[in-house]
Amino acid sequence: MEAALMSDPTIKLPDDLLVEIFSRVPYKSACCCKCVSTRWRDLISHPDHRDKLPRSTLAGFFHRTYGLRSNPPFPHAYRSVSGNWCPLDASLSFLPESEELRILDCCNGLLLCRRLIDPATLEYLVCNPATRKWVTVPATEWSWLVDDTRLGFDPDVSSHFYLFELVPAAPFGSEQPV
């Protein structure tokens, strides 16, 4: 125990004091502090401290532009709600090339996109446009029949996200959806 005290002087600090310190650092630095220790991660991520800690000021929305002169056709655009310039790549050029890329949903800073690789193959991409990080989620056997796909993500609860494919109901006695 004495070795732990010597290696981490913050272990003696009460949680309330650490939260007060975290509340005074910029949002990005507070996010980096989550990597220091499990104690710091738990303090910063705890729902009771949400109002005290800094939040991302990135607020806006992505949309598609429909115009005769757009190149590539129907590119994505980003509009900041606060009116401030935002260093986001609205074209999502950091994502892999595809025949078609469509934004389907967003949730707590993550975007859900559907990527058409070729006419017979699709997959989902979940990305964070602020960090330019993304992961691929394979399509299911029902993906071509899906009416809607939604993204669920709460960074205060977990670092995992969930995709929900809403497939039309099958008529009674049928194995295939209509």
From TrEMBL:
Pfam families in the cross-refs: F-box (PF00646)
Residue ranges of coiled coil: none
Highest taxon listed in the record's lineage: Eukaryota
SUPFAM superfamilies (alphabetical): F-box domain
Residue ranges constituting the F-box domain according to the UniProt record: 13-53
Name of the protein: F-box-like protein
